[in-house]
Design brief:
Shape: globular
Strand order of the largest sheet: 2-1-7-4-5
Order of helices and strands: EHEEHHEEEEEHEEEHEEEHEE
Distance between the termini: 55 Å
Helix content: 25-40%
Largest sheet: 5 strands, mixed
Structural class: alpha+beta
Number of strands: 16
Number of helices: 6
Length: about 230
Amino acid sequence: MNINIQLFAGLVELFGTSVLHITIDQDAISIEDLRKLITDKNPAAASQLQTCFFAKNQAYAGETDWVTSADELALIPPVSGGQPTLYEITYDSIDAGQVAAKVNHPNHGASLLFIGTTREMTHGQRTVLLEYEAYVPMAIKTMEAIGQEIADRWPGTLSAITHRLGKVAIAEASVVIAVSSPHRESCYEASRYAIERLKQIVPIWKKEIWEDGSEWKGSQTGPWNPLQITNKE
């Protein structure tokens, strides 16, 4: 079965086409499975796809709806007025200002921006670049969970996280975390909690590439146990 899915706005730039062509070996597929199929084939677009809705024959379709080649399909990104995506994975350079803007709030008196960058020298060893990969759908879900943990521990605090995948050169940002809160104490604590928790539970892996070799880095903060809850600082 051949399915054609119309794309709009930023999705056209993301996929490089206005119509996405999908071929599957079955006569029908659910919207949920279709979304998963597209995400698996385009992991870099996972965060954007999560915020989109499918339209079937010019009406919004639910995840349990089934579609066939006879249906007119479209993938609808958030329309004007939609909420920003707070937790994102990207292969592009991160705009720290855009991440910070997601947590702006008129009743918050404090905001912090943490930017993790590629360091050239570590213990006398020269790094050429870093390379990141991730289990993207789970990475986004665990970043969202961190955001909820922060909101529960420091009521009223907002957070946004964007992490980069692929190759990240010296001095470029691999992760940007924005936090805002009514008071600075909560803001400082939540910002540190966010990066420590990210390193503990988010399935993102870092490969350090040196002048004379490379190595995938695991947990560097002690025994790795993603089920353990980090204590409040």
